[in-house]
Amino acid sequence: MAKFLAFCSLFILLTINIFGQSDFRITQEFKSRQRSFEIAIEYSKTPDELNKIQKEIEEFKNEFRGNKELLNRALYPSNFESSFTTLDKKIEYSRKKIDEITNLNTQVTTLRVNYEQVSDELAKLTSEINALRNTNVKLMAELRAIRSGYGTTKHKIDSLNKVITELRQGISQRDTLIKEIMDNIFMSAEHKLETLNDAELKGIKTKLKSTSLIDNISNLASDNIDFLNASLLTADDLNVLRSEYNQFDDRWKHFGPKLFDIYSTDTENKDKLVQIDTLMVNWDRALDKSIFRSIHEEFKSNNINIPLFLNAKEFESNLITFIDGKINSANKLGVQDDSEYIFFSENVWDSVVKTKWIPLLLNNNLVKNEQIINIDKKIAEWKKTIGGTKSLFIYGLIALLAVIILISIFVIYKKNKKVKELSSIVNVEPVKEKSKTSEKTIPGIYDGLEDEVNDDIDKS
Amino acid sequence: MKKIGISILFVFLFGCSQIVLEPVDFAWPIESVLDVSDDGKVSETRFSFTANVKSLFFEEMNDSSSYKKETVRIIRDTKGYYFMIASGFKNVYVFKSDDGTFSLENKISISEFGLDLPAFNQRVPYIELLEGEEHVAYLTSEGIKGE
To answer: CB distance A76–B29 less than 8 Å?
Structure first.
């Protein structure tokens, strides 16, 4: 029976396997097609392609299902099902990747649109800057021309102030535009400037070049320096200008190093950036000097002639020297008109300089409190001097008046005495005379007496 | 004294007795197709062995350099015998592993002219031999069965 069963199984095997297939070949084919699917999944670019591949994998699975047992053993350590699980995972991973790429493409499109908008905006800002620069240059020339005849007429002063206001607005507008350009250029890349790839770096360099940003920053600083050197400004104006400088300086300190990084190998632009650094320092100094110059102008316009001062030390020493001069001249003369002191102290120092300018100087750390206290002390000293000379003068005057009054009293007294004597003479003599010379009139007698008195006075 | 002698003999006999684990299925699921290296060796990574097959080719071809750039197909049957063949072989060689060697168990003549595309399939309890997609024979370590 056993022999019969063995014979039957052999017979069945023989009849089935007249045309056999190598298991190795089946396995190889399975592996080969599996690998092909993996490559197809890796290279798929759209969800549709993935869906198509997924369908083909399903067919492939069905095709090899009959060899599942063989493949389970032959694919060790993998097996039939795990092979398809791997393919499914790859499809899911690829699907995610494609989704991300699709999202990134959308973002890139949006960014490209934004980039074009920013570029347009930059071009517009650049042309506005150029126009403003031309206007500013003209205004600066006008300012210089008017300043050459400054102070001659009210009309000229008004024109000067108008030009200064226009110029200040023009420069301020340009500062704002340049700040906007800086923001626009670095806006998108600021957070990753250190890790920019070549293409991104090239893009930024193109923008920097097309907007002439470096030249514009350089011109901006130069123009501000020229403007400050050429103008006499109010404390309010200078407050605004200082604030604008501080804002721009903050931006420069932020973006400057990034520009240095970008142009680390470009000698020409690197030199320009170094120049801008120097200009920023000069701009700061020009602002300080402008404040002192404007304070000096306050004194000058009030006919107080103090030598020009451009820093705190000169400010303190020149004022103290001026006041010392006034004190000394008062001591020499011994008499001093206190109106000059009152005008200086109350009308100029207290009302104008201390109210408008000293807060600006202190806020910008341009003077120390001690220096102001020193000047105040000196003014107080001047006041004391005024008080002393006035007393002496008054005493002197009183003494002089007393002498004059005494002399006057003495003269009047003496005169009265003579008149009394004459009167007594007149009371006696007229009877005598009347009797002797009845023809003489009283006025005639008086005239004669007057001549006598005058003779006596002359003698005495 | 006699008792001690019997005890020693008993322990000796017990210690030397062989342990047999059965049944064991040595069958590989599919044949391994291995390229012969320049120094005549083939390496099987899954089942971890390396063998020098120069003698096999010399035996078959009578040429000491005939192994070069050839491929050997190897499969192991359920009893643990290794069946080897290569393209152009007229015989299937049956080996058993023995103390660090493959020792020839049987040499089964298959074709007068040699097989161009030989392949083995595991068909327990037999090994099937194919020529391309054509069935040739079912083999055991003893020879062809049911041809």
So the answer is: yes
